[in-house]
Amino acid sequence: MEVCFFCFSFSVSAMQMQEWLRSLRPSGDGVGKSEVLDIRSLLPSLPSSFSFSSLSLSSPSLIGLGAVASLTVYWLVTRPRPIRPPCDLQAQSVPVQGDSCCRRSALLKDDNLLDFYHEDTKTVYDVFQRGLRIAGEGPCLGFRKPGEPYQWISYKEVAERAQVLGSGLLAKRCLIQPNSNQFVGIFAQNRAEWTIAELACYTFSMAVVPLYDTLGLEAIVHILKLAEISLVICDQEEKAACLMGNKEKGLTPALSCLVLFNPVSTALVERGKNCGVEVLHLSQIMPPQPQDLAVVCFTSGTTGTIHFIFQNILNLQMEFMSEHVTMFCHGARVGFYQGDISLLMDDIKTLKPTFFPVVPRIINRIYDKILGSVTSPLRRAILHYAVRRKQAELSSGIVRNNSVWDRLVFNKIQASLGGNVRFILTASAPISPTVLSFLRAALGCLIFEGYGQTECTAGCTFSMPGDWSAGHVGAPLPCARVKLTDIPDMNYYAKNGKGEICVQGPSVFQGYLHDQERTAEALDSEGWLHTGDVGQWLPNGTLQIIDRKKHIFKLSQGEYIAPEKIENVYMRCVPVLQVFVHGEHLQSYLIGIVVPDPEVFVGWVKGKGIVGSYEELCQNPDVKKAVLEDMTAVGKEAGLKSFEQVKHAQC
Question: Signal peptide position in this chain (predicted)?
Answer without folding.
Answer: none
